[in-house]
Amino acid sequence: MRTLMLGLAWLYLSSAAVFAQVSGPAAERVRKCTLSLSARGEVLECQGAAFVVGSTPDLSNKKGETLTLLVAAAHIVDLEEDPVITVILNAGSKDEKAVKAGKVAVDWTNDLAILSVQGTGYPEPLPFADGDGPAEGASLSIFGFPDNPGPDRHHEIRCYEALVQARQKDAFGRLAAYQLSADILAGGGGGPLCNAAGKVVAIGLMTLKKRGLSLAIPVRELRDVLDGKGSGLLVEQKDLWQGALRLQATTVVVDPRRTVRKVSVLALPRSSLKTELAPAADGSWKPLPGVPQEVELKRTGSTASAEIVLKDASATDADAPWLFQVKVVREDNTVWCAEPLAGTVNFAKGLTDSAKSTGKDAWSDEAPAAAAPAAEWKPKPLAGKTEDREGCKLTPIAMPGAEAHIPCLCWNADQTAFYAAEKAGTVRLISWPDLVEKAEVNLGHPVSQFAMSHEGLVIVLPDLEDAWLLDSITLQVKNKFHAKKAGWVAASPASSVAFVACAPVSGPISPDNDILTAFDLKSGKKAGEYSGDKVGKEEIPHARRPSNMKAGQPMIWNAPALTPDGKFLFVHSYFSIYRFKVSGPKIALEEVSPPCGGDAARFVFSPDSALVSMHGGMETPIRGAEELGKWGAYIFKVKDLQVPLARSSFHTPWFVKEGGQIMTAEGDGILIFNWKRERVREIPMGTAPGSFGGAGGYFLLHPTGTGAIILRKGVSARIDFEK
């Protein structure tokens, strides 16, 4: 992947520079060929431009008809998983015509997308300029539709001029992008940049406001996209056994004209190189020299992947750099190769430094860090010898104790396994009730909290200010999301949206912890952002709240949690509970409770999403519920936060599905109450060395109420309750 060198100094051009604007028939041809574009998803809508670049056979049509191909900016048309894409011919004129377009191929390494439209009457493709492109100081004409008023009204195409301020180059001195003197305005991303002859020299992408840069991609990259290539490469570890390292190599095949005949990956130890690698004079790469290992990738849709096995009979514990490269052979036998990627291999430990290049972060203002490799874990029994205790059976779990784990556990979607995570970044999937470790991954960074969603496990890595989505079975990293000061995550098995809060998991609450970010886990896109200060000023006055609560006071996003059905978001802010109605990534404040808790560790919900409780308590009883007393953890109906139903002991209660009982882990045992707060049963756990006893930890009740998992100091255990 070529990394844009965005840190280059500005080249200031003389104010006397002369713009060479395209005009006459050439300008009219560009105008006809450039179409207004809109991409509308469930949450977001983006606008830009596209232009005609060729055609391809319509395989769905037996009459031998063709599809017209257009190029657009990938970040506009790939904003959500399946947006409705519309292009407008002759935008703003009386001959305006709207046509639905489909995505054919996406090359995120260069932020280019190829679209197709059916029918006839489209103009001929625009010609491409030859050579190495315009020099610094050259004038270009930018065509696009800036500031379109909306999806149903369109301006005519506009042409404005820009100078090439700099030719940004990559580490090998190749042209990577043009830096322009004029902004790529909203509605212009994806439009052509032409020379005075009306030939395309670049595609306008975007203006990075934070860095003051307007960027365009050279037309040379568009040629490769149209001819067929690979986009990005991911090499992951699968297994290591007796010096044989099994890897999974995956790339995205960009093949809009269906000319790619073969895709393979090459692997070569760097030590076998006699000279350092470099691209050819025209910017292209040759295959890795010598005799690299080559494995053909199997194509499934736009993805190509295969297993590649590296072997070393000595299996020494030494890091060795290897090179991996995507190779594409086209129908005309021309070969395209990607820039080689480096990865560190240790035949005693595995792939110690992952080889990954998706290209999707190349145009991000703040690109998140790459994920560590996800390994295929051989099932490992963890159950110790079961002991009979008073009222239960206790089975130790042979994994690190609570000192190594964060105080968080959660069930998978069907409650047949649970997740645990060490503070240093190791995540485990452990089956229930047989306690077999089914998967393990070391993310390489500390973790603070996690929650189960419909798309997988969402886990927060605070030092990266990231939330990562892990596959619910393999724990492989599926996606990652950047959220400033990320500390908490709220998710539900019933929802494909996760909410990440910047409030700290522990420590003092501060108004600086002000932002809650919604992410669409299916599309991998940020879908909303909410300010606590704005909610406090605009929504609290209209929400149900205690009569003595002032309207418009600020709030913070502490300990956010979704109900199991994903319909409500709960937040703890300044001693009160806030309930928001959830509609996809959108939230609306409905109710605020009286002060009822000073230090929220977590929310707990009943399995049917009807009840909620929060760790905490107040020095004075809640008005209207004085008979419940002070302190403790109050239990509310999810849809009524004004007067609690009951109060348990100080620790957070868990709700038993059958029998209507309340259960807590406190002191050296398990306490079970009824709704009158009468102690029904006490199950002592013991405090002898090596036993279950000790303070702190985490209690996770199975939804059936038949058992629980407890993380305690020095010991983790499964508890099976007697009926």
Task: Explain the layout of strands and helices.
Elements lengths: L23 H10 E7 L4 E13 L8 E8 H4 L6 E6 L7 E11 L4 E6 L21 E6 L13 E12 L5 E6 L11 E3 L5 E9 L4 E6 H9 L1 E13 L2 E11 L5 E10 L23 E4 L1 E3 L2 E9 L8 E11 L4 E3 L3 E6 L3 E4 L1 E3 L22 E2 L5 E3 L2 E5 L13 E2 L5 E5 L4 E6 L4 E7 L6 E4 L4 E5 L4 E5 L6 E6 L5 E3 L6 E5 L13 E6 L4 E7 H7 L19 E5 L5 E6 L2 E8 L2 E7 L10 E3 L5 E4 L19 E4 L8 E2 L6 E2 L6 E5 L2 E5 L5 E6 L13 E4 L5 E6 L2 E7 L2
Antiparallel strand pairs: 1-2, 1-4, 2-3, 3-6, 4-5, 5-6, 7-8, 7-10, 8-9, 9-12, 10-11, 11-12, 13-14, 13-23, 14-18, 15-16, 15-19, 17-18, 19-20, 19-21, 21-22, 24-30, 25-26, 26-53, 27-28, 28-29, 29-30, 31-32, 32-33, 33-34, 35-36, 36-37, 37-38, 39-40, 40-41, 41-42, 43-44, 44-45, 45-46, 47-48, ...
